[in-house]
Amino acid sequence: MTKADAGDSIRPLRATDVHTWDLQADVVIAGFGVAGATASIEAARAGADVLVLERAGGWGGAAALAGGFIYLGGGTALQKACGFDDTAENMRAFLVAALGPGADEEKIADYCDGSVDHYNWLVEAGVPFKPTFWGEPGYEPPFDDGLMYSGGENAAPFNEIATPAPRGHVPQMSNKRSGEQGGGYMLMKPLAETAAALGVRSEYDIRAQRLVIDDDGRVVGLVATRYGTQVAVRAHRGVVLATGSFAYNDDMMARFAPRLLGRPAASVEEHDGRAIRMAQALGADLAHMDATEVAFFCDPHLFYRGILVNERGQRFVPEDTYSGRVGQLGLLHNDGQVLLIIDEQAYEEGMAGTTATPDLKHQPTWVCETVAELEAEIGLPEGALTTTVDLYNRHAAEGKDPLLHKKSEWVRPIGSPVAGIDLRGLMGGFTLGGLRTDLQSRVLHVDGSAIDGLFAAGRCTSGLSAWGYASGISLGDGSFYGRRAGASAARS
Amino acid sequence: MTKADAGDSIRPLRATDVHTWDLQADVVIAGFGVAGATASIEAARAGADVLVLERAGGWGGAAALAGGFIYLGGGTALQKACGFDDTAENMRAFLVAALGPGADEEKIADYCDGSVDHYNWLVEAGVPFKPTFWGEPGYEPPFDDGLMYSGGENAAPFNEIATPAPRGHVPQMSNKRSGEQGGGYMLMKPLAETAAALGVRSEYDIRAQRLVIDDDGRVVGLVATRYGTQVAVRAHRGVVLATGSFAYNDDMMARFAPRLLGRPAASVEEHDGRAIRMAQALGADLAHMDATEVAFFCDPHLFYRGILVNERGQRFVPEDTYSGRVGQLGLLHNDGQVLLIIDEQAYEEGMAGTTATPDLKHQPTWVCETVAELEAEIGLPEGALTTTVDLYNRHAAEGKDPLLHKKSEWVRPIGSPVAGIDLRGLMGGFTLGGLRTDLQSRVLHVDGSAIDGLFAAGRCTSGLSAWGYASGISLGDGSFYGRRAGASAARS
């Protein structure tokens, strides 16, 4: 097609205005990340002819660059092999508490009920998981272990709400330290190969621009651009949107998630929110547009061993929890003002024990003999840090932390010399809000009905999370509801 | 009209499907609160035949029930009469800091530049302001004074960012203590009378249900319901949406502002978000859907004189700031866990000096001889409150508060006996996010263009605020952009 007015608009185009369909398939999927890949597999297995359009030069999306956590539980074979008991109900209790307030409880229950099956599905699709557990503090397993805590399940307050179980399932990496094959790549590679083996077709360097609707408002295709040329793509059964977050759309960030504006991380530049806006132009509804993951870029081996304080010298999080929770509380509730206070011995132990990458091994910003000197050096209000450390030390002498309930194994009085590490600015992330979808991954209109012919999954949708997060939720709900989207579109 | 499929849908109806127009006007306004009233006046003055539809039994909306603050500045006649200097630039600097992060700086600059003119316009429309200043702590002037601080302008950190000036302009109340005529009523009454004198027509007990568009997508009217009957209303020039917030729509609250779910306040049950959804169905864009005002229902005379602490016994806000800021930080960043710690002498002084209504004069929940006893009584972690009070008292002895910079006039060591007042749950409010509009109050499509024939103002739109708030912002931007909406619609 070359119709002039197709232009750059994101408004839906009428099918009657399309003169030629350049590409056709039963199911057309925009985006070849984890949601698009899983959607393509299920659509193909349901008998559909499937075409995936990807604006980058190859499959992968943000997923292929990710550490690779997939949040799964309820008693997966991997959990059992590592000696952990879990149930769907226990997993549900944790997620409702950790991903809220406001988390989609219906979606969480659905996800937990299907989690064991989803794990098996991934294994059958060729995703490798080594049945070993990594129990040290860190962001992800440094070697090829398959299971790790990834959401603060074993830290306060969640360890009192549900029985702790690790649920971060990581695809086995053959050569992690080379940096070439992270867990996300080892997830995406077998999925892309599975899709190809099923006859899924793919086109690259092509980006979805607007949806095409028939006279009844049903989505029957989309218009994409490739090298400046408009390409009309007919979808005989359905369109699946799977193009990722809006972390790189500064205008949307300013309007919906301003605290993360200018701090995109764990996302790719293609995450411009266009799919969200294309669907909004059809009346699609949204959810949790302010919700963001916030990564905290400091080695857990260090911050578990010290105390994290805000600009008033106050502790605000149990330091032995999920680093993303530190990031969220630090950036969203404490204006990004986060300092680590740690004594020399703890720092040395942390550095000795760490398996973190060098960029996370922060050097002390300030070092002093006493906390009072450190407080003055940092420029904190007089007495603010000393009272915090005094209180912490008083209880730490008994191995306790009644203020925030850090586990006793990480509680030890802070001695001398003592350092402050400036962690301001070391927070960034991606967006969790987006299109409102139902359990069948149908995109919902603001009137509550499903928009005919339109499906979505991954971070262009609002998934399990509202305010909170756990590592692996995005690859988790992206792949879970990606499958649903593909299956729904194929039978649409 | 009685076409069956008009039903309860919020999807736009095609004009060709309307058989009979039951009502007609040049400009049709949905909602007769402050935004609708001001829109009606400007539309009528621009020569349009104007019809206002209100679902309640009379004009007023949430505005008529409000305290009546209108946030104005930049050197209004009222500010000058009370001896305060202010400039548009100074006002702008405060608002950008106080209403963010993420506040709409373009809208704020526009609002500040037009603020003096807007004050004069209100006076000319008959809104009375008594040129006296009320300088005591409180929510609103207890008598008929016209000016008061309403956003923490004279408290940290804003008193270092801009020169403090009070900007809460309150219409003079003839009989405030009767409870029948609050400032909001004294704002709405002259506006409604002005509108009536201009020939503005109004219909009550009728609620807007969906928009009507022509073949080009232009909004040419709306469908309303009255006593179960569909009413088709033709707008020859434009439709103005002015139906208020979504604080009473639990589904939207759960998806966008879950921390305020179940806590609506300073809003009316009619605030169901329907206008937002009607416009979304046309592809209208949104902004700051998570933003909420949060009122804090405790007498400032009490909390200025004590310290406010969270569940960890930590202070988090200068107690002498705007109570709404205490509410936002308390509910949104501290999970609503707010306690007031105040000694007997300060409590008695506060009670003696207060002009607050009885419902705000909270009795002590716990009373003890020492802070340590109080801490144990409340159940706070051992040492948490005592260290906070020790630190506060140490500096207070010198009249200082280096931690949060409460002004020295309110800083005094906390003595014995000492009380704790449980303020958990005493926070509630309304939503600040909504339709994205431009400076002419045109509703913007997600493609950035204006939707032909559709205008909006008030709390169904995103106005000046993102995260922060000041009392008077809603009546302020609602009336300011209400006027713009009316003028724009009349010339559309």
From TrEMBL, chains A, B:
Residues 26-475 form the FAD-dependent oxidoreductase 2 FAD-binding domain. One of its GO terms (biological process) is steroid metabolic process. Its cofactor is FAD. Keywords: FAD, Flavoprotein, Oxidoreductase. GO terms for molecular function: steroid dehydrogenase activity, acting on the CH-CH group of donors. Transmembrane segments: none annotated. SUPFAM superfamilies: FAD/NAD(P)-binding domain, Succinate dehydrogenase/fumarate reductase flavoprotein, catalytic domain. The keyword Oxidoreductase applies. It comes from the Bacteria. It holds the Pfam family FAD_binding_2. InterPro entries: FAD-dep_OxRdtase_2_FAD-bd, FAD-oxidoreductase_2, FAD/NAD-bd_sf, Succ_DH/fumarate_Rdtase_cat_sf. The keyword Transport does not apply. This is FAD-dependent oxidoreductase. It comes from Nocardia vermiculata. The lineage of its organism: Bacteria, Bacillati, Actinomycetota, Actinomycetes, Mycobacteriales.
